[in-house]
């Protein structure tokens, strides 16, 4: 047993951190936050594509680097840490993973190289209203060649060129692949909690679409895509949580009150220690998910749900306590705390909320016990 | 990253399993329930016999150097053995402190003659050790120990009182932290000794705990003579020696004891839900809590794997291992509390015959408060994480630069 990343993976992590510290971080995220006309940073997207990150886990035959999911996990942690304002998760964890999981050779050949090069931004359209979607609740309809219905909210749906959509087909559910730049698709940009990532309402009226994977297999495939994305998002959550802890720790060492560093008060120390413990729990669960994802282990559904639940809870705790540690300054627009507080909630909901994932985790425990 | 055993690890696991199957009853069997009713003497006897077999089969001191009678294997092999042993009703408890904390300290700080005298006997289960640090006025603040030792020729003479000494009533030897110089700062005037628990002047008085058990003791020292060759480390350096013991303690005590999510889930399947409809296992609120426990239990288990991976690469376990204690005691308390409450009126009953499953949760409920304190309180461990992991400043120290004898002390 070996429960750590390899030296090569660690040096990839170091390189990614160096690059993102230089080219991304709060300053870049803020340019997107402060400009309602844009929802991602094009320069950062271009550089990330040039370095091959978009195709890190895409096979070489489809224009990727052909590394593994572990490398993607390493990158995800650093992107989360930098609160990177790019449609990376939608394109890489959802769209590309869906294609690699369910796509035909022709579909893979048509789309994966464009994902790897940064030419195609992709998204995954599941939600249609408040509450956790279920196979029975899906209203969007696919008839074998055209798609009708509404999806809201779709993360990065405002800028994506292609979408994987979960739709009803006959009495079952299928995944379908849709070109968003066609007459049958209208988009409406949405105001959200985290304006550093774009969101849209997508409306399909007889939009041309093709099936991704087998007819009627859409719900199972959707769950499988979500499991994969859950592990990768958990790494973003761990990275964001870690950034919050470091910000809070740094502030606690340098801010004085009652003529003492506030970090010398146990009330603050214990708060930061609780954050550390939550991150370690989330990190260990994420590592387990990474192992399961990279080896396609049977444990993946269980490990993914645990990683997702732990990551969502840890990031919420760390983001809120980071603000609290900063006192009044933490509640200002100028200090970066709120960037993480916003992103924490976006990441917790982007692949389905914590309560739904906790329910899935218990269900998967039941299935495992029954097996 | 690889969760599977290597070929050698798998071979070792199979050997361990075969040894355990031949020498212990599986957990949850009738024999386990009976073993809880063994008298202390009977249990210690069984533990000694089991430890002897473990040593003969090469499963004692798995990570210890070969010259200490160990097997010299990387820590992952100890993890594998512990994983397998946890599935059995193995009477290993009496040796946890001695072999986990005391004897490693002896090995680290004594000469060959001393090691030859003590180490092998401890490993074979012939002698049991305890650790004598806490005092009535020195719990979390261990360095405030008042029990004193004064040099007299080739001996030291110890007077004072220790408390919360696990297993002192059946132990043969202990490591004791005492004050040898009250005229310097408190951390600088301590010294550590090996003490014979059967020596004249050592009096052990069991403590009746809130949980009903009697695992801990008060130990009184009246003119107890200890030869200077039993000193561990230089005079006045006892705090540094104690830190080595405490680091091992946090690894050892961090382990979970009592019911976990699997047990409460088992209970919930046969328990009516709060609305009277369906079972507790189907109740949404319960399932959300259960998910939190799964995440914590798995997270803790996997964190240990990360520590072991670091160890196997030759890195030292850092204060990071403190998280185990912070997670586990509260985790146990929450699970037991929920389990008891879920039974409604019936949760009051603490009778193994009427409600055998429930009794385990009562036991955990009553034991967890002690677990939150033993081996460092939650608060102390959070300080350790904050100061040594995150690098936050120490608390304001009123004892810095003041001789121990001049420090204020209350109750």
Q: In terms of topology, how is this protein built?
A:
The complex is a heterodimer of chains A (371) and B (411).
Chain A: H1 7-23, H2 26-33, H3 42-50, H4 69-81, H5 88-102, H6 105-117, E1 122-125, E2 141-142, E3 146-155, E4 162-169, E5 172-179, E6 185-189, E7 199-212, H7 218-254, E8 256-257, E9 260-261, H8 266-295, H9 300-326, H10 337-350, H11 354-370
Parallel strand pairs in A: 1-4
Antiparallel strand pairs in A: 2-3, 3-7, 4-5, 5-7, 6-7, 8-9
Helix pairs in contact in A: 1-4, 4-7, 5-6, 5-7, 7-8, 7-9, 7-10, 8-9, 9-10, 9-11
Chain B: H1 7-23, E1 25-26, H2 30-35, H3 40-56, H4 75-85, E2 88-89, H5 96-109, H6 112-123, E3 129-132, E4 148-152, E5 155-163, E6 173-179, E7 190-196, E8 202-206, E9 217-227, E10 231-232, H7 238-253, H8 261-269, H9 284-312, H10 323-342, H11 356-371, H12 378-389
In short:
With 371 residues, chain A is an alpha+beta fold. Chain A has helices at residues 7-23, 26-33, 42-50, 69-81, 88-102, 105-117, 218-254, 266-295, 300-326, 337-350, 354-370; strands at 122-125, 141-142, 146-155, 162-169, 172-179, 185-189, 199-212, 256-257, 260-261.
Number of helices of chain A: 11
**Count of extended strands of chain A:** 9
* Whole-number mean pLDDT of chain B: 90
Helix content of chain A: 40-55%
Q: Which pair of protein chains has the largest interface, and what are the residue counts?
A: A-B, 49 and 50 residues
Distance between the termini of chain A: 24 Å
- Helical content band of chain B: 40-55%
**Terminus-to-terminus distance of chain B:** 52 Å
Q: What kind of assembly state do the chains in view correspond to? A: heterodimer
Stretches of chain A where pLDDT is under 50 for at least 5 consecutive residues are none
Apparent shape of chain A: globular
Strand order of the largest sheet of chain B: 3-6-7-10
Q: Tell me the strand percentage band of chain A.
A: 5-15%
Compute the number of helices of chain B.
12
Low-confidence stretches of chain B: none
**Strand runs of chain B, count:** 10
**Rounded to an integer, what's the Rg of chain B over CA atoms?**
22 Å
């Amino acid at each position: 047993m070996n429960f750590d990343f390899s030296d090569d993976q660690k040096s990839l992590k170091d390189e990614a951190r160096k690059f993102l510290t230089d080219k991304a971080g709060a300053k870049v995220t803020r340019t997107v936050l402060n400009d309602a006309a844009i929802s991602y940073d094009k320069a950062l997207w271009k550089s990330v594509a040039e370095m091959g990150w978009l195709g890190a886990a895409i096979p070489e035959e489809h224009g990727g680097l052909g590394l593994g999911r572990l490398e993607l996990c390493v990158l995800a942690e650093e992107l989360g840490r930098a609160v990177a304002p790019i449609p990376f998760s939608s394109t890489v964890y959802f769209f590309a993973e869906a294609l690699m999981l369910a796509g035909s050779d022709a579909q893979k050949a048509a789309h994966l190289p464009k994902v790897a090069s940064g030419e195609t931004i992709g998204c995954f359209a599941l939600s249609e209203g408040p509450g956790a979607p279920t196979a029975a609740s899906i209203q969007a309809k696919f008839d074998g060649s055209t798609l009708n219905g509404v999806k809201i909210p779709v993360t990065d749906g405002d800028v994506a060129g292609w979408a994987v959509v979960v739709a009803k087909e006959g009495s079952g559910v299928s995944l379908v692949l849709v070109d968003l730049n066609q007459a049958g698709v209208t988009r409406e940009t949405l105001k959200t909690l985290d304006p550093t990532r774009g969101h849209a309402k997508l409306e399909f009226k007889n939009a041309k679409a093709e099936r991704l994977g087998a007819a009627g297999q859409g719900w199972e495939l959707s769950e499988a895509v979500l499991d994969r994305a859950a592990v990768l998002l958990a790494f973003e959550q761990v990275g964001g949580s870690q950034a919050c802890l470091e910000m809070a720790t740094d502030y606690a060492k340098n801010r004085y009150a009652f003529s003492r560093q506030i970090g010398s008060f146990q009330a603050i120390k214990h708060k930061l220690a609780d954050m550390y413990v939550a991150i370690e729990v989330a990190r260990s669960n994420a590592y387990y998910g990474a192992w399961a994802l990279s080896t396609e282990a049977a444990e993946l559904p269980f490990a993914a749900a645990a990683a997702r639940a732990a990551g969502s809870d840890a990031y919420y705790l760390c983001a809120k306590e980071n603000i609290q540690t900063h006192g009044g300054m933490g509640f200002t627009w100028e200090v970066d705390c709120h960037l993480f507080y916003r992103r924490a909630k976006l990441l917790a909901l982007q692949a389905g909320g914590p309560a739904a994932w906790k329910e899935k985790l218990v269900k998967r425990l039941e299935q495992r016990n029954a097996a | 990253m690889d969760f599977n055993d290597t070929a050698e690890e798998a071979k070792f696991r199979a050997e361990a399993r075969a040894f355990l199957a031949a020498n212990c009853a599986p957990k949850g069997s009738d024999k386990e329930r009976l073993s809880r009713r063994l008298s202390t003497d009977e249990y210690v006897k069984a533990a000694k016999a089991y430890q002897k077999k473990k040593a003969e089969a090469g499963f004692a001191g798995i990570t210890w150097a070969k010259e200490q009678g160990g097997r010299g294997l990387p820590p992952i092999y100890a993890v594998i053995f512990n994983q397998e042993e946890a599935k059995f009703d193995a009477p290993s408890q009496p040796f946890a402190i001695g072999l986990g904390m005391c004897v490693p300290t002896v090995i680290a700080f004594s000469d060959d003659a001393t090691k030859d005298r003590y180490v092998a006997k401890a490993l074979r289960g012939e002698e049991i050790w305890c650790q004598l640090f806490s005092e009535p006025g020195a719990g979390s603040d261990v360095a405030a120990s008042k029990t004193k030792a004064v040099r007299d020729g080739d001996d030291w003479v110890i007077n004072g009182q220790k408390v919360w000494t696990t297993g002192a009533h059946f132990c043969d030897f202990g490591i004791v932290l005492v004050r040898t110089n009250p005229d310097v700062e408190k951390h600088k005037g301590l010294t550590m000794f090996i003490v014979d628990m059967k020596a004249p002047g050592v009096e052990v008085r069991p403590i009746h705990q809130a949980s009903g058990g009697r695992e801990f003791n008060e130990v009184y020292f009246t003119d107890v003579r200890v030869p200077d060759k039993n000193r561990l480390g230089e005079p006045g350096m006892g705090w540094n020696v104690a830190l080595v013991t405490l680091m091992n303690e946090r690894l050892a005590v961090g382990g979970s004891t009592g019911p976990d999510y699997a047990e409460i889930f088992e209970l919930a399947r046969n328990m009516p839900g709060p609305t009277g409809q369906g079972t507790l296992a189907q109740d949404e609120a319960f399932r959300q809590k259960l998910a939190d426990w799964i995440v914590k239990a798995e997270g803790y288990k996997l964190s240990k794997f990360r520590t072991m991976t670091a160890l196997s690469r030759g890195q030292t376990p850092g204060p990071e291992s403190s998280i185990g204690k912070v997670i586990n005691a509260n985790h146990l308390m929450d699970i037991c509390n929920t389990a008891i409450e879920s039974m409604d009126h019936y949760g009051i009953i603490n009778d193994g015959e009427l409600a055998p499953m429930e009794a385990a949760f009562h036991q955990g409920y009553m034991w967890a408060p002690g677990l939150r304190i033993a081996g460092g309180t939650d608060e102390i461990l959070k300080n350790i994480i904050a100061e040594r992991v995150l690098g936050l400043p120490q608390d304001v120290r009123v004892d810095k630069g003041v001789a121990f004898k001049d420090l204020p002390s209350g109750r």
